[in-house]
Amino acid sequence: MATENTENNSFFQSVQRNFEKAANHTNFDRGILDQIKACNSILRIKFPVKIGEKIEVIEAYRVQHSHHKLPCKGGIRFSMEVDQEEVMALAALMTYKCAIVNVPFGGGKGGIKIDTKKYSVFELEKITRRYTSELCKKNFIGPGIDVPAPDYGTSAREMSWILDTYSSLFPNDINAQACVTGKPISQGGVRGRTEATGLGVFFGVREACSFKEDMEKLGLSSGIGGKRVIVQGLGNVGYHTAKYFQEAGAKLVGLIEFDGAIYDENGLDVDAVQAHRKTTGGILNYPGAVSYSDPAEGLEKSCDILIPAALESVIDKHNADRIQAKIIGEAANGPLTTEADEILHAKGVLVIPDIYLNAGGVTVSYFEWLKNLSHVRYGRLEKRFSENMYQELIDIIESTTEKQVSNLERKMILRGPDEIDLVHSGLEDTMIGSYREIRDIYVGQQGVEDLRTAAFVCAINKIGVAYQELGIFP
């Protein structure tokens, strides 16, 4: 138990250290900085649930880190590692993450301390619904108050249970669907949510690689094409990240999972590796690739871009010096320790921080929340109008040139935007714009040493201005 607390305290303290480092590059009064840093509301609850023939007392949390914008936003995780310090740290990161990508939410986070493998689906449903009713009692959930989402150990299934429980307790709330995001499409979810975090990681790294002067410092050419990429973790985030890099012309030279790592300088096909994994139960012994039984070895192989997309603290002071990547994109939360960060910075590695890079999930959650409040799916109002306008354009081109547009060209031009097109477009715009804001601080503000500090400065500036404009600090 002591080990868990030490690790979580370290994570929380790491967030606080990064905050203080960035705060030195801002001009806000210490009182405003202390308010930004503080967790505003912490709910720790214990409730009984009948499991089989016995009563179990379940421990759970919900932290609302900041109320500078409402509702608060953040996932709910089911894990035996859950404790108050961890939830506080993750809620704080959500506040800063939302500010960086200009999503008007305060940060929140929740967790239930259970081992999901020990319970049946029916029992998990009972626990989730009871947790939701406790949140309702304490006013810790609602479309304009606090909006949960999936996290480690939860999925769209749990979100649908939360929605149903909330709706039954507040039957007159016309916006009840907006009380939670990450729902199934049939329950008001948004298309594009599944791949959102991985796609956001791709957009963020692609934007970083678009600056020629930054790439020249690393000895790389600009753009994604041809760059050698290693991805750690083939879960939802890692798989989609690898897939988008591969489709963009990057060479996927390494993949890492819990059972080991594979490496091939000639390139891997992520779908073929997934098929091999499904057949054999693991990624090792993939044809043509070198296998390593120790997953950590995969992190140290030669590549241009390394994407840790699974666990916390996989790169630490013991292996940081052996990392050969020139760019590290933090798709997971906290994959680098503070000591590793310092070592890699001294080596000249460009670290794209998690606080920005994995914000694709909350960005698309914001789109889902807006969809639920507007009660209309994206694309419904403009799809046919756009197609009709494009048809008129084709008619003008054909009559002017006296040439017929081919069926393939016609099909491509006439296609109006569907919901998923608009969601992906909005995510792309968000990740591009936010990276440029962070880079402007990194390049233009004296003393800001790295992108992580720049990202925290960006967040603090936006939250600080919001507090000032609220009139809380005259």
Largest sheet entry: 7 strands, mixed
Spatial order of the strands forming the largest sheet? 9-8-7-6-10-11-12
In one word, what is the shape?
A: globular
Average pLDDT taken over every residue: 91
The number of helices is 17
Portion of residues in helices? 40-55%
Uncertain segments:
1-9
Order of helices and strands: HHEEEHEHEHHHEHEEHEHEEHEHHHHHH
**How far apart are the termini?**
45 Å
Question: What features would you describe in this structure?
Answer:
The protein is α/β, with parallel strands linked by helices and 474 residues long. The chain contains 17 helices and twelve strands. Strands 9-8-7-6-10-11-12 form a seven-stranded mixed β-sheet, sandwiched between helices. A five-stranded mixed β-sheet has the order 1-2-4-3-5. Helix 1 crosses helix 17, helix 4 crosses helix 5 and helix 6 packs across helix 16. The N terminus is likely disordered.
Relevant terms:
about 475 residues, alpha/beta, seven-stranded mixed sheet, five-stranded mixed sheet, 17 helices, 12 strands, about 50% helix, disordered N terminus
